[in-house]
């Protein structure tokens, strides 16, 4: 009798058996659901593919997802542009490159209306000279320089405020084999604005002539810095002209130059240069004035928001600074505990104000072998499971009625506490960094132990395969036995096309890991507002 029941009952299907026609096989051999094309596109924009996954190399994963992105750009160009702009405006992604690549694909491969929309959106995406030059490198791979391309690039150069354009000329001279001179020669922007033409001439020929204005002081100061005799002279020019450190020749970038840069730059620069400030002897134990200045800047919520600092940027800075050595051999230093604490505070601040849903949460963090491979957003040391744990702490700290557990092929108490530092969280994760993947375990464990939960949140790469019960059936069984209309939120930590969430169940939601809007959406969904 039991054998016959097992054969015909869908809820008894193992994760390696197909239960429904709309299920697909994931990279690990388990059956899950394919996310919608729009969700998959969003995952690419926010997570990218740097670092690959346990089951797919970075090259293979990138090739697969970029093929999908180009197909989506051709077929859904206008919607793609809207999604790209939303991600950019809301600072939802850690890196701009995936969005720039996707926008370039629409600009070159979409229908006429979509291509025009893409070029109109480029000024929103090209917030820095680096972004523009990266976009050009991507666009070149999709086609040549037609009329729309020339006009689109010219419009960026003609629309950028003159002070910003002058800064681009000094700070972002070349990227990815492209220079502003290359772009200007191909785009031929035309204007009667003498100041703008003066900047264009400097970009092409390296000389500033025919104009003098406060907006051009950064170029004037840069030309003087090229002739500076010492570190002190260069530092004086930085203060006098408001120069970025890139305006100073590399051989003059010593302690005094970095001290001036700390005064003339904001929080983004500070995050990226904690190692350099330490290496030159400015940021160290006992340098209380510098420590105070740095920590206040890092924990200034309005500055973080204005600087469009993403939580991953902070986490990357924390991992590198705490390690006491540069990723690419950029010297060694001793981390200052107060700075480490400030970085942890900045990580949570970068998500913005998160309101509690005041529901009962069970957070399940996938700590299986597949989650320990690859990296999130290409950040060394930021594996998907460490990133998942860090992200889960946002909810764990916000919701008073919550429990956080880890799972592989078994369910384990990670002994996480709401006040744990990210360092402690990381170490606890590393103790459970192995095993097969069974994403049904959070619901099965809660059912078996009669744990009351309104919301299950599973942080995973969706490569589930090891269990005897599929996750959607485990949730339905929990709802039935506990009499609770529990919801399931699946937070995908890699840019694959898979999800354990049933797209036909209104009580299940797919989210993209490290989307800055994720905590807010989770709260609204948990509270029944979505």
UniProtKB/TrEMBL annotation:
SUPFAM superfamilies (UniProt xref): TROVE domain-like, vWA-like
Record key words, sorted: Cytoplasm, Metal-binding, Ribonucleoprotein, RNA-binding
Location of the TROVE domain: 24-359
Gene Ontology CC terms, in alphabetical order: cytoplasm; ribonucleoprotein complex
InterPro entries: Ro_60_kDa (IPR053680), TROVE2 (IPR040322), TROVE_dom (IPR008858), TROVE_dom_sf (IPR037214), vWA_Ro60 (IPR056800), vWFA_dom_sf (IPR036465)
Gene Ontology MF terms: metal ion binding; RNA binding
Keyword Metal-binding: yes
Pfam families (alphabetical): TROVE (PF05731), vWA_Ro60 (PF25045)
NCBIfam families per UniProt: RNA-bind_Rsr
Record family assignment: Belongs to the Ro 60 kDa family.
Protein name, per record: TROVE domain-containing protein
Organism: Deinococcus yavapaiensis KR-236
């Amino acid at each position: 009798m039991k054998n016959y029941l097992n054969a015909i009952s869908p809820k008894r299907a193992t994760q390696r058996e197909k239960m429904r026609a709309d299920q697909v096989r994931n990279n690990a051999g388990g059956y899950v659901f394919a996310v919608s094309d729009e969700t998959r596109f969003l995952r690419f924009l926010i997570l990218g593919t740097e670092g690959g996954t346990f089951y797919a190399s970075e090259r293979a994963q990138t090739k697969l997802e970029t093929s999908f992105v180009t197909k989506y750009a051709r077929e859904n160009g206008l919607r793609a542009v809207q999604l790209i702009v939303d991600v950019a405006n809301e600072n939802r992604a850690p890196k701009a490159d995936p969005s720039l690549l996707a926008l370039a694909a629409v600009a070159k491969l979409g229908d006429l209306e979509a291509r025009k929309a893409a070029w109109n959106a480029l000024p929103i995406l090209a917030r820095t000279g680096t972004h523009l030059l990266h976009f050009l490198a991507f666009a070149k791979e999709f086609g040549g320089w037609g009329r729309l391309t020339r006009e689109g690039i010219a419009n960026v150069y003609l629309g950028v405020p003159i002070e910003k354009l002058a800064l681009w000329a000094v700070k972002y001279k070349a990227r990815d084999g492209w220079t502003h001179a290359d772009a200007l020669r191909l785009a031929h922007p035309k204007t009667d604005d003498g100041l703008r033409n003066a900047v264009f001439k400097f970009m092409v020929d390296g000389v500033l002539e025919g104009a003098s204005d406060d907006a051009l002081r950064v170029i004037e100061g840069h030309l003087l810095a090229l002739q500076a005799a010492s570190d002190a002279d260069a530092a004086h020019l930085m203060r006098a002209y408001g120069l970025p450190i890139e305006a100073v020749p590399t051989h003059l970038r010593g302690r005094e130059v970095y001290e001036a840069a700390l005064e003339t730059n904001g929080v983004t620069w500070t995050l990226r240069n904690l190692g350099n400030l330490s290496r030159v002897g400015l940021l160290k134990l006992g340098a209380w004035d510098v420590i105070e200045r740095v920590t206040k800047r890092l924990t200034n919520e309005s500055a973080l928001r204005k600087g469009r600092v993403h939580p991953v940027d902070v986490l990357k800075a924390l991992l590198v600074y705490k390690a006491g050595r540069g990723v690419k051999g950029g010297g060694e230093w001793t981390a200052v505990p107060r700075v480490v604490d400030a970085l942890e505070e900045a990580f949570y601040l970068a998500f913005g104000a998160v309101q509690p849903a005041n529901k009962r949460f069970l957070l399940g963090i996938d700590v299986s072998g597949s989650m320990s491979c690859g990296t999130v957003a290409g950040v060394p040391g930021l594996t998907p499971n460490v990133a998942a744990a860090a992200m889960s702490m946002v909810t764990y700290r916000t919701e008073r009625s919550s429990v956080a557990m880890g799972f592989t092929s078994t369910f384990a108490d990670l002994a996480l506490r709401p006040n744990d530092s990210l360092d402690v969280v990381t170490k606890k994760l590393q103790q459970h960094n192995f095993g097969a993947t069974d994403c049904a375990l959070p619901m099965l464990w809660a059912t078996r132990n009669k744990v009351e939960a309104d919301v299950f949140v599973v942080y995973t790469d969706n490569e589930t395969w090891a269990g005897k019960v599929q996750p959607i059936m485990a949730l339905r069984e929990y709802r039935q036995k506990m009499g609770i209309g529990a919801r399931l939120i699946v937070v995908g930590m890699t840019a694959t096309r898979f999800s354990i969430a049933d797209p036909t169940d209104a009580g299940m939601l797919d989210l993209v890991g490290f989307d800055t809007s994720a905590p807010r959406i989770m709260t609204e969904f948990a509270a029944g507002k979505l």
